[in-house]
């Protein structure tokens, strides 16, 4: 194990457990006292941990207690969805300190959307002391390159150097991630679930996978994208056109935009997923029927993932999650019908408790993971000390 990995691993302990003594770190890591002292000294000098008083005595002098210092620096998080975005200044623990939300259509292209993002970032105030930026987008991402790859709905974004665009303006490390993966990362940490499927249901449908505690991205960044798989409902019905150009996709039957289309065709004037949710809350019979059917379509789609991957939790977020049991009853119905009793014996299917800022929190956490990794932390400590 290298020097940098030792420092990174020790810092990870403080990020996860908040307060630890020297003795705690020695017992958990197996490192010697002198090595632990060196690591703690480096982290303390960089302001990443702070001494907070004495710990339990082991017979000699009390062992100093240390805690992670999330206020040491800031992280910018930019959560771009199909029809809007949220930008936030977060602390190093991912907690949003200030944020701005705006409406924009992602298919208007990167220059238009990111220009709006830049203006919104100005509204966050003083951004000195920012150590990294996390950007989430609703499409497959080449994580290493920081670029979108063949996105179904992001016209003009294919291959665009998102990471470079931000680096040229802020001169800090930039992480680009699929927005549903970012959401999955924070859901997994919040729920303490190492094996989880996260569904993000708004204008479109996003899905993220966390298994064995790691985000599963796949070879081309497209892992888990159930929104553009063929719906079981479509096999015996006329295939509906999806925004991605294919027909019969899950998103063409169960997304916010699909529900708006269907309600409009039935003479009910709506223009957004938010308005669909409001109709459901008001008890509109047609909206309730369509949303419940959307839940069944989603349940069919995710059932295969449950059989193959055997998650502990399926968590649903986004605007349509506010339909609660009207939607979730359909999801549960089909998942339990189409998977084995063993795969669903302890499966929890629930809605998120994180609210609209869960995405920016997830992006901040993934960004922190990158800047505090063994490969990057030496340079960070040099600049921070």
From TrEMBL:
Transmembrane region(s): none
Gene3D superfamilies: 3.30.420.40, Winged helix-like DNA-binding domain superfamily/Winged helix DNA-binding domain
Transcriptional regulator DIP2311-like C-terminal domain location: 15-61
Record-linked SUPFAM superfamilies: Actin-like ATPase domain, Winged helix' DNA-binding domain
Pfam families in alphabetical order: DIP2311-like_C, ROK
Family: Belongs to the ROK (NagC/XylR) family.
Name of this protein: ROK family transcriptional regulator
Lineage of the organism: Bacteria, Bacillati, Actinomycetota, Actinomycetes, Micrococcales
């Amino acid at each position: 194990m290298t020097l940098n990995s030792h420092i990174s691993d020790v810092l990870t302990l403080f990020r996860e457990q908040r307060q630890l003594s020297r003795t705690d770190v020695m017992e958990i890591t197996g490192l010697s006292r002198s090595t632990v002292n060196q690591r703690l000294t480096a982290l303390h000098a960089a302001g990443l941990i702070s001494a907070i008083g004495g710990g339990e005595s082991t017979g000699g002098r009390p062992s100093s207690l240390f805690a992670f210092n999330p206020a040491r620096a800031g992280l910018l998080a930019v959560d771009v969805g199909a029809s809007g975005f949220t930008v936030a200044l977060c602390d190093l623990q991912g907690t949003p300190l200030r944020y701005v939300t705006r409406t924009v259509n992602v298919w208007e292209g990167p220059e238009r959307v990111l220009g709006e993002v830049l203006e919104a970032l100005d509204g966050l105030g003083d951004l000195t002391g920012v150590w990294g930026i996390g950007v989430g987008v609703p499409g497959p991402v080449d994580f290493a390159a920081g670029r979108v790859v063949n996105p179904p709905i992001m016209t003009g974004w294919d291959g665009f150097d998102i990471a470079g665009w931000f680096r040229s303006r802020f001169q800090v490390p930039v992480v680009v991630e699929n927005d549903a993966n970012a959401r999955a990362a924070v859901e997994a940490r919040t729920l303490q679930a190492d094996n989880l499927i996260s569904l993000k249901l708004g204008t479109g449908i996003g899905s993220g996978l966390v298994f064995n505690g790691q985000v599963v991205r796949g070879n081309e960044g497209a892992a888990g994208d159930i929104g553009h798989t063929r719906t079981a409902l479509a096999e015996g019905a006329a295939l509906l056109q999806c925004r991605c150009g294919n027909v019969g996709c899950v998103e063409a039957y169960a997304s916010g935009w699909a529900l708006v289309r269907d309600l409009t065709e039935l003479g009910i004037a709506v223009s957004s997923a938010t308005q669909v949710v409001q109709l459901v809350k008001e008890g509109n019979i047609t909206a309730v029927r369509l949303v419940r059917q959307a839940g069944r379509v989603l349940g069919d789609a995710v059932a295969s993932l449950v059989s193959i991957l055997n998650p502990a939790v399926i968590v649903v977020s986004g605007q349509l999650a506010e339909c609660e049991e009207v939607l979730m009853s359909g999801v549960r119905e089909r998942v339990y019908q189409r998977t084995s009793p063993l795969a669903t014996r302890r499966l929890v299917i629930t809605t998120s408790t994180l609210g609209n800022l869960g995405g920016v929190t997830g992006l901040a956490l993934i960004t922190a993971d990158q800047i505090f990794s063994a490969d990057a932390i030496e340079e960070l400590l040099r600049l921070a000390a």
